[in-house]
Amino acid sequence: MSMSLEWLTPERLPRTSVLMLGALLLNLLAGCSDDDGFSSLPETVVLHQIGPVVQEPKRVIHGSVVPADLTRVAFRLDGKIDSLAVHSGDLVQQGQLLAELDDAIQQQALGDAEARYQLSYRQLQRAQGLKGAASIAEAQLDELKAAHKLAKANLELARNALTYTRVLAPFTGVVAEVHKERFESVRAGEAVLNLYRNDRIDVLVNLPDDMPGRLKPGQMRSNLRYEVAFAGFDQPYTMSYLKNSMARSPETQAFQYWLTMPAGKQDFPPGLPVTIDVDMAQLNVPTDQGVMVPTTALQAQSANQQTEQFVVWRYVDGVVDPVSVRVRQVTQQGVLIDSGLAPGDYIVRSGWEKLSPGQLVQVSGASPQITSTTDSETADSTESADTSDQEQ
Prior knowledge:
Elements: H1 15-32, E1 43-49, E2 54-56, E3 58-74, E4 79-84, E5 91-92, E6 97-101, H2 104-131, H3 138-163, E7 166-168, E8 173-178, E9 185-186, E10 191-207, H4 211-214, E11 225-230, E12 237-244, E13 255-262, E14 273-279, E15 288-293, E16 299-300, E17 310-316, E18 319-325, E19 327-330, E20 335-337, E21 346-350, E22 359-363, H5 373-391
Parallel strand pairs: 1-22
Antiparallel strand pairs: 1-21, 2-15, 3-10, 3-14, 4-6, 4-9, 5-8, 6-7, 8-10, 10-13, 11-12, 11-14, 12-13, 15-20, 16-17, 17-18, 17-21, 18-22, 19-20
Helix pairs in contact: 2-3
């Protein structure tokens, strides 16, 4: 059923009804002006003021203990493992038996080679006795000599093949891992176990990308000593250079550097984290300088931005904007930044998760006091006036 609303005119409605209808329309219009029905408040952030430029003469590099001369121990023949004499973690001496193959085939081959050698030897002895009586031709004698040499060579090969069924420890060390079990078939060159030296401690570190380019050739191979702190141990240990890589590691995409020291009473297992303080001044390398920012102020950029890796939010006159920065190093005091910021700048220390460029924000009470240029000039002028009054 339809109803005509032509009669709803101001002339036909009472004055009170017209006022009520107008108020209702104003409320509806006010509600449509804001999707939430509430006025939006600026985000509250905590600020940090950038201090003066600082220099960091030391670089902190992290690494880990690695097995010294880690060696893959393998058989030189195909076969089936007949015995395994060691387990992971065992201490072995140089020349100690580690594993052995079933040598039945090699024993049979050795017996056959010995028989052929004995036969060729006797035939050669008879031929040499007949040579004096001119009862044998020179050609036949040469054939017997060649057969004897071949039999001797085959005998040596058979003896060597028998020794290849046993693997011995190439040096004194510790069994890192055993890869095979008894009665398991293996191929020549396939690792049966890993062995590493226990007479020294090696540490592997991945150098930061900027360090190799700042070092001169052979500078890392000098007689410098490095203070290395092992995780869980209070006392640092002095280590020296062992070797370094000339290209990036395929696994870590970093240049690698090895330190070493003789093993002592304290055992440092492989994989133990270490921290190394490198004195850049001692290496005659320019030291890092920049400004310090809290780690909580750094925001990682999206993966499609390749020029910079982090941004911070800079505060100017109540408005925040992202600024790309370059991280030089991370220290216990914070993160050293060498581009993008200047001393005296204000950045958002926390609360940047919901910020957008050009957004108006309000400062938390936990932030440092922000004094504008006008306020500073006013304060200076007031102080000067007070001073002049006192002089009068």
